[in-house]
Design goal:
Elements: E1 2-5, E2 10-16, E3 21-27, E4 30-31, E5 35-37, E6 40-42, E7 44-46, H1 50-63, H2 78-87, H3 93-106, E8 120-125, E9 128-133
Antiparallel strand pairs: 1-2, 2-3, 3-4, 3-7, 5-6, 8-9
């Protein structure tokens, strides 16, 4: 496994064995890609990481720029803003498409290719990158 950064503050670790890639994203000592199913904790593994790599390559310019959230929503994080926006009745299709495009640029969830990849948002906030997530109900139907 190759670690970039460090596990105590922020780090990304990637490895590969004969059957799958293993990916970990550490924020303050916690691997936020781990998930629990049936009482067991699993590390994120998937047969192919190309979709994630392509997503990062295509969207890094938006993550590093001042690409502001398209709706006026007060929340502590981008993940919370998205959660609130899901509950809004957005009847303007153009506004909805702008919101959806922003979400695709800042969350790699669309690159999960059917895997249990956590829905994480990467957004520039002043001179830092905010990493926020809330996967409480993301894969609830699958018992995760």
């Amino acid at each position: 496994m190759q670690l970039i950064g460090n596990k105590k503050t922020f780090g990304i670790e990637l490895g590969k064995d004969m059957s799958a890639y293993q990916l970990s994203v550490y924020v303050q000592g916690k691997d936020i890609l781990q998930y629990e199913k049936g009482g067991e904790i699993y590390t994120y593994r998937w047969k192919e990481c190309q979709d994630i790599i392509e997503w990062i390559h295509e969207n890094m310019k938006y993550i590093l720029s001042d690409d502001k959230f398209p709706l006026s929503i007060s929340a502590a994080s981008s993940a919370e803003k998205c959660e609130v926006s899901f509950k809004l009745d957005i009847d303007n299709i153009e506004k909805y498409e702008i919101l959806q495009e922003w979400m695709f640029r800042h969350s790699w969830f669309s690159a999960r290719a059917g895997s249990y990849l956590a829905d994480i948002y990467f957004v520039r906030n002043n001179n830092m990158i905010e990493i926020s997530w809330d996967n409480t109900n993301t894969f609830k139907e699958d018992g995760i």
